[in-house]
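Batch job 17 of 40 flagged for manual review because the log was empty.
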Amino acid sequence: MKSAYRILAFLIAAEVVVQAAAIAFASFGLSKWIDGGGILDKATKESDEITFDEVVGFIVHGINGMMVIPLLALILLIVSFFAKVPGGSKWAGLVLLIVVIQVGLALFGREVSLLGLLHGANALILFAVAFHAGSRASASRERDAEAQYA
């Protein structure tokens, strides 16, 4: 179970990297599309007529952020109760809390655009906390292996 915990924690950290890459890809593609004469307004957004390839970045960012990462964080918390990683449940709970905040910032950011700044900063916090949780599990596995051969 420690391996599952470790993999899930590092997977969440990796998903944050995917999120950053996807939104950058989409934003740069949108800018290029507009520079080429594309027009983005409410009517275009609602008509599904945005025809630049990089739009997939927005889709990936949305699906990962609203479904994949929250599901991984919930599974990490459940696994944490069985993994016997010292402090593992605390760190998994913190990951889940940060994910909930991140989703909230994304949803409310459509109304208050300044929340986008917090959304970006919170993503970095999520990466650090998830990576730390995975590192704690790795260290715990190494201590268990050393104790087994001592």
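Reviewer: the log was empty due to a logging misconfiguration, but the result itself is present. The chain is about 85% helix and 0% strand. Unflagging and moving on to job 18.
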